[in-house]
Design brief:
alpha+beta, Heat Shock Protein 90, 13 helices
């Protein structure tokens, strides 16, 4: 059932009257609340204009051949249309339909009560109009109320016809025949309309319910995706902090070395009165302080929780700048090998996340070689330079086939409780996949482990690619 009045709708609502009546509809009809009311209002507007035009033509055509009552009923029909149009213009769609249906039924009652059924048979289609309109726009109850009203009028008209020829059996039989035909046609039309509208309303309710379910599922999926994204960022940050802890011992060693240099230069300057030697000592202190600043800056940048900012990186320069940080993870028993292969390609990746990936792989390699061994990091970019290949290998104890198949799963670890989170390789694989890359693992017990990373790349252009901040080499 339609609401009793219109409410303003979004100006961008696509539901509006058809092109043919759009300009006139904008003058007479306000925006509807939804598509259903917009279509109903447009249909009613066209119907009222059509019926009013028909009534006007009928009045002009039969102005001299019909009586006063017929002309009065025609004028009444026109006034009913005009009243409904005015109510429609005043945003009273429900009342407009009610007025049109009721006034037409009243006028039809006068016609049946005066002329009977036989005289109205030629206008059966117009008499069904209130019934059809009531069912389409007012609902099921209004449909059957209008049908009952019109049925009573058919019976009244048939009774008047039969009464006029009460002593003529042929007239009585003809009135009964007319009543049966008219009543059957009206009830059949009302039944078909009722069933069709009921089916449409059921389908509409199902569609609305499914639409609501889809909207709810969409919202749940968006929340889930946002939650997963937040969880991934938290996992990445947690892994950064874990790797920062691994680097702490190396950083402490570096700072002790740098502090010793500073103390040595300071003592040398304090013992000398030569301005040149004093200046050289101050320069040494300044150089050592700059190196300490670079170490702290890179450590703080790595541990900071920032949103990923992918950028074009010169792959060889970016990895070479990480060499001092990677060396800190290994002791003197591990041979560290880095081969950038003079790679001439660039990748679109977040520098901090690239450091995180390689640090995670290096940390796992260090734990796989407790008694020493060889760690190798090699880069290659085959022609035509659309893919960067990074191979990270160690000579550690390796992995069994079951462990190799699960090593990239989140929270999977072979370490004792409290000694590993199982997030390092999982986060590394996630970051590689997010950059449209892929990662593969080769390993066997006693034969070490090799990680093969593949990242989309492009040939190195003439413009210098981004070099990570703090990428200057620091002597250790």
């Amino acid at each position: 059932m339609l609401s009793r009045s219109y409410r303003s709708a979004d100006p961008a609502d696509p539901a509006e009257p058809p092109q043919g009546t759009r300009s006139f509809a904008r003058r007479w009809m306000p925006p509807a609340l939804d598509a259903t009311e917009a279509r109903a209002a447009a249909m009613l507007l066209r119907l009222l204009l059509l019926v009013a035009g028909y009534q006007l033509l009928l009045l002009l055509w039969s102005a001299r051949s019909t009586g006063l009552l017929a002309q009065t009923l025609t004028v009444g029909g026109m006034l009913a249309c005009l009243a409904s149009l005015e109510l429609l213009r005043r945003r009273r769609l429900h009342l407009s339909v009610v007025v049109f249906v009721v006034l037409n039924l009243v006028l039809t009652s006068v016609a049946y009560g005066y002329w009977g059924l036989r005289a109205q048979m030629h206008g059966q289609l117009l008499q069904l109009l209130p019934v059809l309109l009531a069912g389409a726009l007012l609902g099921r109850r209004a449909l059957w109320l209008a049908t009952a009203w019109l049925g009573a009028l058919l019976a009244l008209g048939a009774w008047l016809d039969a009464a006029a020829g009460f002593y003529l059996p042929v007239r009585v039989a003809l009135a009964a025949h007319d009543l049966s035909l008219a009543a059957f046609g009206m009830v059949l039309a009302a039944f078909v309309l009722d069933q069709s509208l009921s089916s449409l309303r059921d389908n509409l309710r199902i569609a609305q319910r499914r639409g609501a379910d889809l909207a709810r599922k969409r919202d749940e999926l968006q929340l889930e995706m946002q939650e997963k994204e937040r969880s991934r960022e938290q996992l990445v940050h947690a892994l950064k902090i874990e790797n920062v802890g691994r680097l702490a011992s190396g950083v402490a060693h570096d700072f002790n070395h740098l502090l010793a240099l500073i103390m040595g230069y300071a003592g040398k300057g304090r013992r000398s009165d030569d301005p040149a030697e004093l200046k050289a000592a101050l320069q040494g202190v300044e150089s050592a302080a700059r190196r300490a600043t670079a170490v702290t800056r890179r450590l703080l940048d790595f541990s900071r929780q920032d949103v990923a900012r992918p950028q074009l990186l010169d792959a060889a320069q970016a990895v070479a700048a990480m060499e001092p940080m990677l060396r800190q993870l290994f002791d003197a028993r591990v041979a560290f090998e880095l081969d950038t292969g003079q790679t001439q390609c660039q990748i679109h990746f977040d520098p901090a996340q690239l450091e995180l990936v390689l640090l995670s792989l290096a940390a796992n390699a260090q734990q796989a070689m407790p008694d020493g061994g060889t760690f190798r990091l090699a880069l290659s970019c085959p022609e035509p330079g659309n893919e960067l290949r990074i191979e990270v290998s160690d000579s550690g104890h390796g992995m069994s086939e079951d462990v190799r198949l699960r090593c990239l799963e989140p929270f999977f670890t072979t370490k004792p409780s409290g000694q590993g989170t199982g997030l390092g390789l999982a986060v590394a694989a996630n970051l590689i996949a997010a950059a449209d890359g892929r990662i593969a693992v080769e390993s066997a017990p006693g034969e070490g482990t090799r990680f093969h990373l593949r990242l989309p790349a492009r040939p190195l252009s003439g413009e210098p690619a981004h070099r990570p901040e703090g990428g200057e080499a620091i002597p250790y």
